[in-house]
Design brief:
10 strands; two-stranded antiparallel ribbon; alpha/beta; 210 residues
Length: 210
């Protein structure tokens, strides 16, 4: 079993990812989706969160060997960034979605040095908008952004385009394709439902089960 499928299997096993091609979920954006991913649930499973942290740490040292500081996106990326920073014995910061409106008005909590090489950790990637904005905020504070590392990638065309447009490298532990394959092998979805799931990924905004 590949590492991508192993992580996908664990996310399915603990209910961090749910699939329902015939009765779709509604995202906060209003998009109807046959999949719902909540990686916050991984915090409650020590063995799963440990394997995720170890996987992220290995992936970061492989793809971003010059990393000097680990950043987590608020809020879902924070615990994973903390565990990875501990494994790599590196400084850790976290990035708010916007600057505070009180105190010092910080958007980045923690301390970064000018031109410090940073990897930003996110829990999942859909369009990539929030983590790209976080990386840009850190760059404006002087960080040298090496790239992003995440647990799960929906592999949406808009997300791929956004990372390419911003020239921001991205690596993830697992992804939508591995998840569908694993779910089918475990009997969670039927063969006829695979096509529905694949059609959604191509155009989630206009997707319909009809």
């Amino acid at each position: 079993m590949t590492s991508e499928k192993r992580i996908a299997e664990q996310l399915l096993s603990i209910g961090a990812v749910s699939l329902n091609p015939t009765i779709p979920f509604t995202w906060a954006s209003g998009i109807k989706s046959p999949i719902y991913c909540d990686n916050r649930i991984t915090m409650s499973y020590p063995s799963v969160r440990r394997e995720i942290a170890q996987g992220l740490a290995k992936m970061i040292t492989t793809h971003y060997p010059d990393v000097e500081v680990i950043a987590g996106t608020a809020t879902a990326g924070i615990p994973h960034a903390a565990w990875v920073a501990e494994l790599l014995d590196l400084p850790m910061v976290y990035i708010r979605s916007k600057a505070k409106d009180h105190g010092k008005g910080n958007q980045i909590e923690g301390r970064i040095a000018d031109n410090q090489k940073m990897v930003v950790i996110e829990d999942l990637i859909s369009t990539g908008g929030s983590v790209i904005e976080a990386a840009q905020a850190a760059a404006s504070e002087g960080a040298n952004i090496l790239g992003v590392a995440a647990i799960f990638n929906y592999e949406l065309p808009q997300g791929i385009e956004n990372f390419e447009k911003n020239k921001l490298p991205l690596v993830t532990l697992t992804h939508y394709s591995a998840l569908i394959e694993t779910a089918f092998e475990r009997g969670i979805i039927k063969e006829y439902e695979i096509a529905l799931l694949q059609e959604w990924k191509k155009d989630p905004v206009n997707w319909s089960i009809n």
